[in-house]
């Protein structure tokens, strides 16, 4: 959340916020700027063996398939919103892309995960579409996100529900609603995403 990973020239100004800096052989500098202190840095030659990485669920884009998602859904009584935000179940989705994926899959954020097991195919399709479009647009800049080269992402204009409270649903015209789910603002269409 609001953290930044930057690759930049070695002689840049010293950071003011909490930052970890690493130096590459090409005299570039890798900076991890972590103003809100949610992140961590670990040095390892075997990343997968780090407990923080070993405990993650399958990567939403690279590893998750329909069968695995169906099993994970069937085993959880959590609401879909909390289920998808839990990195131990599925890794790689934050609040914005959970909202977008659920809208694309026409699933209500409060639907219990196990009741959506039969719709794993459409949920996975929604997850992949939300992430692929965001990657193609280099991420979503709502306030201060920048990519590793310091550029803002262009994905905000492509969002279907996130940040669009009160605006018409892009499919049915019903005003998009916002409610707190799992402690985070959740945006959804009450007509397209019925419980
Ligand atoms: Zn709608």
Low-confidence stretches: none
* Residue fraction in strands: 5-15%
Major β-sheet strand ordering = 1-3-2
Number of domains: 2
For the biggest sheet, the summary is:
3 strands, antiparallel
| Overall 3D shape | globular
Small-molecule binders here are:
zinc ion
Helix-strand string: EEEHHHHHEE
Determine the CATH topology of the largest domain: Helicase, Ruva Protein, domain 3
CATH class of the largest domain: Mainly Alpha
Helix content: 10-25%
Q: Kindly report the average pLDDT value.
A: 89
Spatial gap, N to C terminus: 29 Å
Query: Radius of gyration, Cα only, in angstroms?
Result: 18 Å
By CATH, the architecture of the largest domain is named: Orthogonal Bundle
User: Helix count?
Assistant: 5
Judged by helices, strands and strand pairing, the structural class is alpha+beta
Overall strand count? 5
């Amino acid at each position: 959340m609001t953290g930044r990973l930057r690759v930049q020239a070695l002689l840049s100004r010293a950071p003011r916020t909490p930052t970890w800096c690493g130096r590459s052989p090409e005299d570039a500098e890798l900076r991890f700027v972590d103003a809100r202190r949610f992140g961590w840095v670990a040095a390892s030659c075997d990343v997968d063996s780090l407990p923080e990485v070993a405990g993650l669920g399958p990567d939403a884009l690279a590893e998750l398939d329909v069968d695995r998602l169906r099993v994970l859904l069937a085993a959880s009584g959590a609401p879909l919103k909390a289920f998808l935000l839990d990195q131990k179940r599925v890794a790689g989705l934050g609040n914005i892309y959970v909202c977008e994926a659920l809208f694309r899959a026409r699933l209500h954020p409060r639907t219990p995960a196990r009741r959506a097991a039969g719709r794993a195919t459409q949920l996975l399709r929604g997850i992949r579409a939300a992430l692929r479009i965001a990657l193609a647009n280099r991420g979503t800049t709502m306030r201060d996100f920048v990519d590793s080269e310091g550029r803002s992402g262009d994905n905000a204009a492509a969002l279907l529900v996130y940040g669009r409270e009160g605006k018409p649903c892009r499919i049915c015209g019903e005003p998009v609603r916002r409610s707190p789910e799992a402690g985070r603002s959740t945006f959804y269409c009450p007509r397209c995403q019925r419980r």
